[in-house]
């Protein structure tokens, strides 16, 4: 570090090796002159009276500090207390809850599947083991009824022949309308 | 034996109401002196002093930020005061064209004559201070700040260099130029005053 920077540290009482700097000062006139100038300026600065904030401002700051301290409560510098030990059954409870939820979900899916399968397989079960399923068998329709109801459920036009006929008609209409559109465009384009 | 800053901080956090007042009163001249040097307006310096401590209290109570610089309470508070002063200076620059306030920060009561036996001495010192402050104001901003931080707040050059995020040699160099430039200005001012006194 430059001796002139050491001078600044010396002026403010931060120089670690003051005796070494004093020796250099005694042997260097320029350095000593600079020291005297800097010291005189520092003395002028030190002589300035201190400035203080208004007493009301200090009171207000202290009041705010008091309110903040009381609203947040005392802060202990000691370590926080340990939390109570968890009961050993806690993980098992959690596992049981998970397993129960999974079982319930499986039961709902199984019930749904069974109900859907029971309706379609009803006549087969009915004919294979008559009387085996009392209530469902009574509710399930016979094969003839099923066929009747299935044809009743489908709209009258929704058979193969009707669909083919409708499709052909659509094709014919499209074939007829296509040249008209083209011709109309050409007519517009002519002078 | 005086309690250290850290002991007072711990006492305050344990709801000792008097501890915070002692901390403020211990350092009020340093913090306020720096703020006054930066903003040159007593009312604004009071306002910034209060804002600084609002932030300090919040941080100490863990509401906003945190105080974890053990053993460097004043240095930490000064970093908050410095930010407040810089924020204010930036705002002032932004509104410089709008504000034409020439207030010197003195209240009506400050302007009244003092008839106490030390009135002359006090007046002389106040004038001397004002005269020096005018010269300090003319220093380059980075020189002025180092001078105010070292002279008013008593932070070490190491702490100042950390605060300004510069090397310690830079901080020392700025201080050296601040003192040398101030010396030149004072000498020039003295010569002018002398010429003015002789010249009819």
Q: pLDDT below 50 for ≥5 consecutive residues: which ranges of chain A?
A: 76-80, 120-151
- The averaged pLDDT of chain A comes out at 73
Structural class of chain A: mainly alpha
Order of helices and strands of chain A: HHHHHHHH
What portion of residues of chain B is helical?
A: over 70%
Apparent shape of chain A: elongated
Q: Count the domains of chain B.
A: 2
Low-confidence residue ranges of chain B: 99-103
Structural class of chain B: mainly alpha
Task: Determine the strand fraction of chain B and express it as a percent band.
Answer: under 5%
Here the CATH topology of the largest domain in chain B equals Rna Polymerase Sigma Factor, Chain: A
State the CATH architecture of the largest domain in chain B: Orthogonal Bundle
The CATH H-level homologous superfamily of the largest domain in chain B: RNA polymerase sigma factor, region 2, helix turn helix motif
Biggest sheet descriptor of chain A: none
Number of strands of chain A: 0
Q: What's the story with the biggest beta sheet of chain B? A: none
How many helices of chain A?
Answer: 8
Give a verbal description of the structure.
- The complex is a heterodimer of chains A (191) and B (200).
- Chain A has 191 residues and is mainly α.
- Chain A folds into three domains: 1-46, no CATH class; 99-153, no CATH class; 154-191.
- Chain A is built from eight helices and no strands.
- By secondary structure, chain B is mainly alpha-helical.
- Chain B has nine helices and no strands.
- The relative contact order of chain B is 0.10.
- Chain A binds chain B through residues 1-2, 4-5, 7-9, 12, 14, 37-38, 40-42, 44-54, 57-58, 60-62, 64-66, 68-70, 72-77, and chain B through 10, 12-15, 17, 20-21, 24-25, 28-29, 32-33, 36, 45-46, 49-50, 53-54, 57-58, 61-63, 122, 125-126, 128-129, 132, 147, 150-151, 156-157, 169, 172-173, 175-176, 179-180, 182-183, 186.
């Amino acid at each position: 570090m430059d001796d002139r920077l050491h001078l600044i540290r010396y002026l403010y009482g931060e120089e670690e090796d003051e005796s070494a700097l004093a020796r250099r000062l005694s042997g260097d006139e320029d350095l000593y002159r600079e020291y005297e100038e800097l010291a005189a300026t520092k003395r002028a600065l030190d002589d300035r009276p201190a400035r203080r904030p208004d007493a009301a401002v200090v009171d207000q700051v202290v009041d705010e500090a008091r309110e903040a301290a009381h609203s947040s409560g005392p802060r202990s510098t000691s370590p926080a207390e340990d939390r109570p030990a968890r009961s050993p059954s806690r993980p098992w409870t959690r596992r049981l809850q998970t397993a129960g939820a999974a079982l319930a979900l499986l039961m709902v899916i199984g019930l749904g599947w069974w109900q859907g399968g029971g309706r379609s397989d009803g006549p087969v079960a009915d004919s294979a083991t008559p009387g085996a399923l009392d209530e469902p068998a009574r509710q399930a329709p016979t094969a003839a009824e099923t066929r009747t109801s299935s044809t009743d459920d489908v709209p009258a036009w929704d058979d193969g022949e009707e669909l083919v006929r409708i499709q052909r008609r659509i094709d014919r209409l499209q074939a007829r309308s296509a040249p008209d559109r083209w011709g109309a465009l050409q007519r517009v384009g002519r002078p | 034996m005086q309690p250290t800053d850290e002991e007072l901080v711990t006492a305050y956090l344990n709801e000792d109401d008097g501890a915070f007042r002692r901390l403020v009163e211990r350092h009020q001249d340093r913090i306020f002196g720096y703020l006054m040097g930066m903003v040159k307006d007593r009312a604004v310096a009071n306002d910034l002093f209060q804002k600084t401590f609002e932030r300090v209290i919040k941080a100490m109570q863990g509401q906003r930020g945190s105080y974890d610089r053990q053993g460097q309470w004043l240095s930490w508070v000064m970093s908050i005061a410095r930010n407040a002063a810089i924020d204010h200076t930036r705002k002032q620059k932004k509104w410089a064209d709008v504000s034409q306030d020439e207030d010197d920060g003195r209240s009506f009561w400050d302007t009244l004559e003092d008839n106490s036996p030390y009135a002359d001495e006090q007046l002389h010192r106040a004038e001397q201070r004002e005269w020096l402050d005018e010269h300090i104001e003319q220093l380059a901003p980075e020189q002025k700040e180092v001078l105010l931080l070292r002279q008013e707040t008593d932070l070490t050059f190491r702490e100042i260099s950390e605060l300004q995020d510069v090397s310690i040699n830079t901080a020392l160099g700025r201080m050296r130029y601040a003192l040398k430039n101030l010396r030149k200005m004072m000498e020039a001012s003295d010569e002018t005053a002398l010429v003015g006194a002789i010249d009819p």
